[in-house]
Write a structure and sequence with these properties.
There is one protein chain. It is built from two helices and seven strands; from the N terminus they run H-E-E-E-E-H-E-E-E. By secondary structure, it is mainly β. The chain has one domain. It is globular, with a radius of gyration of 15 Å.
Length: about 120
């Protein structure tokens, strides 16, 4: 893990429970800044490109941490101007639907979010 953190400035690690994805740990500058507890339902496998990801709806964290377009006026203008292939629709701040070319590929339910320094998961 130390080698990865020294090699990459921005790292997202998926941890599992009994073989199922359960946590996303987000590291920036060799520090864990956010952990997301989740349940996922894998719908279908898809080969993605490197186009930007756009989140619709509100989250308990900034999607920019995941490399998505920022929730700023500039990010919104970019999203309106281009035909985005990767869109994440957020419902009730906890239910996420991941689309690629308008096809549902993954669903995720966020069970909790823990920011750096918190001792427990917030809901």
């Amino acid at each position: 893990m130390e080698d990865l953190l020294q090699e990459f400035n921005h790292l997202i690690m998926v941890r599992e429970i009994k073989g199922n994805p359960a946590f996303l740990d987000i590291f920036i500058d060799q520090r864990k800044i956010l952990t997301i507890r989740m349940n996922v339902g894998i719908i279908r496998k898809e080969k993605f490109d490197d186009s930007p990801v756009y989140f619709t709806g509100d989250l308990d964290f900034d999607p920019l941490l995941l490399g998505a377009l920022p929730k700023t006026k500039a990010g919104e203008k970019f999203a309106l101007k281009y035909d985005l292939r990767k869109v994440v629709r957020v419902k009730k701040k906890r239910d996420l639907e991941f689309y690629f070319d308008d096809k549902l590929v993954l669903t995720m339910k966020i069970l909790g979010v823990r920011h750096e320094g918190d001792n427990h998961f917030g809901k």
